[in-house]
Amino acid sequence: MKTDTLLKKVSTVELTEAAAGSQTTLAQLAAEAQTEYVLLMLKPEVDMGYGALERMLQVADQTQAALLYADRWKIKESAEGPVREVARCIDYQLGAVRNDFDMGSVLLLRSDILKGWAASLQPSANSSLRYAALYDFRLYCSRLPRATAIFHLGELLYTENELDLRKSGEKQFDYVDPRNRDVQIEMEQVCTEHLKAIGAWVGGDAIADAPLEDGEFPVEASVVIPVRNRARTIEDAVRSALSQQTAFPFNVLVVDNHSTDGTTEILQRLAAEDARCIHIVPEREDLGIGGCWHLAADDKRCGRFAVQLDSDDLYSGPDTLQRIVEKFYAERCAMVIGSYRMCNFQLETLPPGIIDHREWTDENGRNNALRINGLGAPRAFFTPLLRAYGVPNTSYGEDYALGLRFSREWRIGRIFEELYLCRRWEGNSDAALSYDRVNANNLYKDSLRTAEIRARQNLIQS
Fold this sequence. Notes:
By secondary structure, this protein is of the alpha/beta class. The chain is built from 16 helices and 16 strands. 36% of the residues lie in helices and 23% in strands. The longest helix is centred in the last third of the chain and has 27 residues, at 435-461. It is elongated, with a radius of gyration of 24 Å. The chain starts with a helix and ends with a helix.
């Protein structure tokens, strides 16, 4: 495509991600757009590949996409010098409603769609978005007919510098950092309006009380600990659970998923010392964390309430289990979620500190849950419903899937004070994930959101 033709077809605009979040800025861009497309570049010093712009325009014309994004190369600084890595995006889908969906730093926008979005905005100055304008535009595009919506071009078309060199285990909590609270409130408002627009918003009147007196159980509560090869941490976790002081009987179900590092021997010793510690070794060898949870919930020794404790972690104090069970009865909840503190092995606080998910409200928490990537810990479930729904046999996102499913119909109780210590160490499974692994995790959770949105649409229509 000749240069003069390109200039007539597309204009290039450089904006920071912060500036692109401003409704005023993005609406002004729409008003001034004179070309068919706008190429929005969100990072400095982006190097477009050979023929990249022509290729993006060609595919945009073919698909009539309102928003087109592509894969890229990332340059990271390391001790050995710059490292060039492939950074692929994932395909967009109905459930890709989280505001941190990664489309890269080069976006091709159709100007008429951008103008249509700007015209749809509320005229009141009080409604002007400061952070979420680009997010709002993306959701607007996703509501368009499929032929004119969002398209992912799976080709490496440009190179960008990676400016955020933190490990995945540090980045994943940005959305609950208290310093970002104003941003998150605005993102929630935008997501809520989107869910209403697509018929997937669930109001508070659809939430039922849990039938907590149903069924007979050997104990009131069971702490469930799935574990595989955690000889360094498992005894601390089990003793933390056994030290709980309660007004009711409880036990600890430890599902030992065929450990080979000495974990099994530790659990055999602990079970011999205290009958409340029940050591379960699955017959099957194809279980993930979710499968271990399912096995524990179906066990006849499981209590009325099943309460989570990961094999790396600890309860903050001896009253955690008592407070969780009291919350079930006080609010007739089907699920209870507490708050946790990030810490190291010396129990010293790590950023961002306490993760309390105070963005949750009784009115809108179940809807905002579709925007964010987690709901908090520890998590506890009314066992009959947990058995009825089942737990996905995965080792990532199974807890999120349950949170979405429970929140669709049942009340979720929240405890915003610290109950749980999440210990970060080099052995944590999500401490430093590769780009491909992060993508796979995000793709899975987006698929969970897609399924949940469709279920909620069907629920509302019925």
